[in-house]
Write a structure and sequence with these properties.
- The protein is mostly beta strands and 238 residues long.
Length: 238
């Protein structure tokens, strides 16, 4: 009788621990994300394929995004006058990390960085106008937008050995070329948006390319809330 009671007690304890472990595994936000994962309509987006059924953090609403809204990965980070770093989750087999360097921000600004590939409806129209694709050399593999939530316009500053902006892009499959470049979208003197290629290109190493810009390109600035700063990465054979 005593042995039966001990055995029953042990089994009950094991069952309780198992249930607690299962219950604690639901609703866990992936580490590294600074806000809860959301889909375009505020729900939870999932990634399939190689990444598995992991939650993907997105922010495809206005706010925090302005103008053309990207439905890919998204991260919220703080940009200080000394810079800030970001890490996006895997979207369309691509992962993006990087940084924005020194700048003239008078106070820390909240920035949302999002990406998209401009396929399958993952870029929403802006006031009925479609997003203007970048037509650089080779193939544009990904777009990114930085949305400033503050009322200050932020201009980058050059600093010894510190990139003005840096993107490290990894493709789980393969890049469509051995060299990649970048461009940014901004309003031109005529008031229309136009793409400007950043100087220099970078070689692809395996499945990763690092694009670093050390000089401040003319006209490059992070506008105040209500406008976004858009980037494109294109790859080609050189």
């Amino acid at each position: 009788m005593r042995l039966s009671m001990i055995r029953a007690s042990v089994l009950a304890s094991v069952a309780a621990i198992a249930l607690a472990a299962c219950g604690g595994s639901h609703g866990v936000v992936p580490q590294g994300s600074s806000f809860a994962p959301m889909s375009a309509n505020g729900g939870v987006a999932s990634i399939g394929g190689d990444a598995g059924p992991l939650a993907l953090a997105t922010c495809a609403t206005s706010p925090p995004q302005w103008m053309w809204i990207f439905k890919g990965a998204c991260e919220k980070f703080t940009l200080k006058s000394t810079g800030g770093k970001f890490t996006l989750g895997v979207y369309a087999n691509l992962s993006v990390t990087g940084s924005i360097g020194y700048n003239n921000a008078k106070s820390p600004a909240t920035i949302y960085l999002s990406d998209a590939i401009d396929k399958n409806g993952d870029v929403l129209k802006n006031k009925g106008k479609a997003f203007p694709p970048y037509k650089g050399e080779g193939t544009t593999i990904v777009y990114a937008v930085a949305d400033n939530q503050s009322t200050q316009a932020i201009t980058p500053k050059s600093h010894p050995n510190v990139p003005v902006i840096k993107y490290v892009i990894t493709d789980k499959k393969a890049f469509p070329g051995n060299t990649c470049g970048a461009a940014y979208l901004a309003k031109q003197k005529n008031g229309l948006f136009g793409w400007t290629a950043l100087p220099g290109t970078e070689p692809v190493h395996g499945k990763t390319v690092t694009i670093s810009q050390y000089e401040v390109p003319k006209g490059l600035a992070l506008p105040p809330k209500g406008n976004g700063l858009y980037f494109a990465i294109n790859c080609f054979n050189k």
